[in-house]
Design goal:
Blueprint (H helix, E strand, L loop, with lengths): L6 H18 L7 E8 L6 H13 L5 E5 L4 E5 L2 H14 L4 E8 L4 H5 L6 E2 L1 H4 L1 E8 L1 H22 L6 E6 L2 E6 L2 H12 L6 E7 L2 E7 L2 H26 L5 E5 L3 E7 L4 H8 L2 E8 L10 E5 L5 E5 L4 E2 L3 E8 L5 E7 L1 H12 L5 E17 L5 E18 L7 E4 L4 H13 L6 E9 L1 H55 L3 E2 L1 H30 L4 H33 L3 H32 L12 E2 L7 E2 L1
Parallel strand pairs: 5-23
Antiparallel strand pairs: 1-3, 1-4, 2-3, 6-12, 6-22, 7-8, 8-10, 9-10, 11-12, 13-16, 13-19, 14-15, 17-18, 18-21, 19-20, 24-25
């Protein structure tokens, strides 16, 4: 029947409306001010929670909603002032090994969370947080790689019993080896060539010294820089995840810089200490009995055993290409490590000659701590001091020559998982420095959010008034569809995709409000024209929707393609605008065409009507009378 939807289609539309309402509801629940506590150690204990609550009670800070797990502790507060006071009290009660971060905790009811309904992720400009521009020290990355090559060269020449007059690193891309004669140089070149396929070898003489130059080609340097930047970006993303920040931004900028934006984090000093922490793995052999005390360092193994570790590094963590925690054939936990080609050659050569000895893995970290001092004028100042911290994380027997892929056994399930996480996310390929930082306070972010939603509200109200006044009953249908459209946008951004709402994103929503009624204006204008041409009301409604559909589709499709381009090539604010625009176009197509048609069908469908309440239109007679 004309202008009547079947029951299943009406039911589907009602279901979409209900889901849109339910999944947009969590956005009306405000977040609680909170503090999140994590640690670099393996796990948090309930004693840590007791220490935190005791410190808060001593500071007379009101708190509630303590949430404890082995990964983090979350404490909620009533006000921002309580949150800031609590942070200071907790930091004084805990050591530097703990990370105390300001955060926001959701208050969405449990039943909504159970069905996956949550709040929209807010960007830096709406929630506040910190923005960093970090620069990677590429010279340090190349220098570390060349020092690694130098150590490997010395090991190979020592095994081949080839004497030299010295080896040294000339610069970050140049290594030279000096020999007493050309025969020794030729033997060394043959021994080294297969182990360093990425380096260029060149012979030269300087007086009575025969020199073998090993240089890194420009394309290899460029690839190393790219790998270093990508490795640091991956590491930073893992570290940010540990902070529990919702929708952080970690993006490459240029050839040696990374942009980091952390919404909801209001402590830049803590974020700097966390992000800049330099960590790497070192593989060593256990010192031989009777070795000189200067050749080894004593550490304590995870099981409490005192171990003398030889100072010479077999392999560094930058040679690890992949790592994961698995189970062996007996169901026991193990950590599987994959090395790159050169790392595989190094570990195979060393372990082949040292079967039966113990191999030790050290986690070396360059940490920072804040120290208080006095400036020249006697004022108290805080300075950041860096120090190196090494700890033994694995002490195992070499049972056979290790290939590129090998496993570390003898661990509990938790130790295996934690070790794989440490290796995967604990190592920066090169040091990084902060070249630019800015902080957006929570108050400014909240003001932006409130101003943005006021803009959406004002725009919506003005459109609602105009549509109701100009199109009467049809305007009422368009207004209902507009409200449904906004709910669907919020629902989609809250649940169905990992989108983040930014201030430009709110602009996109405001634009969508206008575009949503554009389609209805085209449809209603087309219906008026058909009525003016003498078409019966029911046929005019059907014709108006059908004939306007192609125009609406073309207009929205071109706008959607522009939004896709903006999202693809844009960054930051541009992407935020593009996301809401794309979502808004899709939802407005549904609500403006299907939604309003359903409402009009309910009001007029299946009835014998003579006129429509769609505003003024001219009847096709000679009386000149206008119908309303």
């Amino acid at each position: 029947m004309l202008n009547r939807y079947p029951a299943w289609k009406n039911g589907l539309i009602v279901l979409v409306v209900i889901l849109g309402f339910v999944y947009s509801v969590p956005n009306i629940y405000p977040d609680d001010e909170a503090i999140q506590i994590t640690t670099d150690s393996l796990a948090l204990a309930e004693s840590d929670l007791a220490t935190v609550t005791t410190a808060l009670e001593a500071a007379q800070v009101e708190f509630f909603g303590e949430e404890f797990s082995e990964e983090s502790i979350l404490i909620r507060f009533n006000t921002v002032d309580d949150q800031l006071i609590a942070k200071t009290a907790i930091e004084e009660a805990l050591t530097d090994d703990y990370i105390v971060a300001l955060n926001l905790a959701p208050t969405t009811p449990g039943w909504l969370q159970a069905i996956g309904a949550g709040k929209m992720n807010l960007g830096l400009d709406l929630q506040g947080g910190v923005h960093f521009l970090m620069e990677v020290d590429m010279n340090a990355a190349l220098g570390r790689r060349m020092e690694d090559n130098l150590s490997n060269v010395r090991s190979i020449l020592r095994e081949e019993r080839i004497r030299t007059r010295g080896t040294n690193v000339v610069d970050n891309s140049h290594l030279e080896i000096r020999f007493a004669n050309a025969e020794a140089r030729s033997e060394a070149r043959s021994a080294l060539l297969d182990n360093f396929p990425d380096l260029q070898f060149q012979n030269r003489e300087s007086g009575d010294v025969f020199i073998l130059d090993m240089r890194t080609p420009a394309d290899v340097i460029l690839q190393t820089q790219r790998d270093t930047l990508q490795a640091n970006r991956t590491t930073i993303m893992s570290r940010v995840d540990a902070l529990g920040v919702a929708e952080p931004t970690v993006q490459q900028q240029g050839a040696d810089r990374i942009v980091v934006e952390l919404p909801g984090v209001q402590d830049p000093a803590q974020a700097i200490r966390f992000l800049q922490r330099i960590a790497t793995l070192e593989f060593h052999l256990e010192a031989e009995p009777g070795a000189s005390p200067a050749s080894y360092t004593t550490y304590t193994s995870p099981d409490g055993l005192v171990v003398d570790v030889d100072n010479e590094v077999i392999l560094q963590g930058d040679r690890i290409s992949n790592v994961r925690s698995t189970l062996d054939q007996n169901g026991l936990p193990q950590v599987q490590i994959n090395l790159d080609a050169q790392g595989g050659n190094q570990i195979n050569r060393v372990t082949r000659d040292n079967v039966g000895r113990m191999m030790d893995i050290l986690l070396s970290e360059t940490r920072s701590r804040t120290i208080t001092g006095l400036d020249e004028e006697g004022n108290e100042i805080e300075e950041v001091e860096f120090y190196e911290d090494k700890r033994l994380i694995s002490h195992a027997t070499i049972r056979t020559a290790l290939p590129r892929t090998f496993v570390i056994t003898g661990l509990t399930a938790r130790e295996a998982n934690d070790l794989s996480e440490l290796i995967r996310s604990g190592s920066l390929a090169a040091p990084m420095t902060i070249v630019e930082q800015s902080v957006i306070g929570p108050t400014m972010g909240r003001e932006n959010l409130e101003a943005g939603f006021r803009g959406v509200l004002v725009a919506s109200v003005l459109v609602l008034i105009f549509m109701m006044f100009y199109y009467r009953v049809f305007g009422l249908a368009a207004n209902s569809a507009l409200i449904m459209n906004i709910l669907l946008i919020f629902a989609v951004m809250s649940t169905l995709i990992p989108a983040t709402l930014t201030l430009p994103g709110i602009v996109g929503i405001v634009l969508t409000v206008g575009m949503a009624v554009d389609a209805n204006v085209l449809i209603f204008t087309r219906i008026r024209e058909e009525l003016s041409n003498g078409m019966p009301p029911q046929k005019a409604i059907d014709s108006g929707y059908n004939r306007a559909f192609t125009t609406i589709l073309d207009a929205n499709l071109t706008t959607f393609l522009v939004a896709v381009v903006l999202f693809t090539i844009g960054t930051g604010p541009v992407k935020g605008f593009a996301v809401t625009l794309m979502i808004g176009i899709i939802t407005s197509m549904f609500t403006a065409i299907v939604g309003t048609r359903a409402l009009v069908n309910i009001i007029y469908g299946g009835r014998n009507i003579q006129k429509l309440s769609i505003g003024s239109y001219r009847l096709p007679d000679k009386s000149g009378i206008e119908a309303t």
